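Async update (no meeting this week)

Hi team, since we skipped the sync, here's where things stand on the single-chain job. The sequence we agreed to prioritize is pasted below, unchanged from the tracker. I ran it this morning and attached the output directly underneath so nobody has to dig for it. Comments welcome in thread, and please keep replies under the output.
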Amino acid sequence: MAKPIRRIVTGHNQAGKSIILSDGPAPNSASPPGVPDLVNTVLWVTDSCPASNRGSEDASPRGRRLGIEPPSHGSVFRIVDFPPDQVFEGVDVRKMMAEVGGAHVVDRGNPRHAMFHKTSTVDYALVLEGEVWAMLDEGETLMCAGDVLIQRGTNHSWSNRSSENCRIAFILLDAEPV
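Output:
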């Protein structure tokens, strides 16, 4: 199991002074059935743009279900722990993608990798630990800790060909479809 992610959320008190509202393990973390090492931790969600900083409600509480894409006109900030590709041997990846709310984005053609998908988003992907191959319809590149990829509504997949987990921070912004 992936190590928990500490999430600190700020806000305002009654007098309008800045305060820490919460500090602890991110409560919204899940894995698809059959692949417990693939951990998706949703840290924050906005439901509109511009987002509201009013109130103290948790935008990503335990149990809030969210597909791969953010809400319409919103955003999602998540960290995903990708296990090595061999963990997926024998797993029905299309079924797994449907279970995590990604059935509508899965590549239905003949993809080069089982998890190829396309979202109507601009994605900022930052590798925090490990390494992963960013795969596109044509071409791929190895990403290591500290590397950033700007994914602009393209068909893509992540392939962890190493023997260690890879942790990636993603910020997805709703975008117009290509």
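Quick observations from my side:
The CA atoms of residues 8 and 23 lie 4 Å apart.
The two ends are 36 Å apart (CA to CA).
Reply here if anything looks off.
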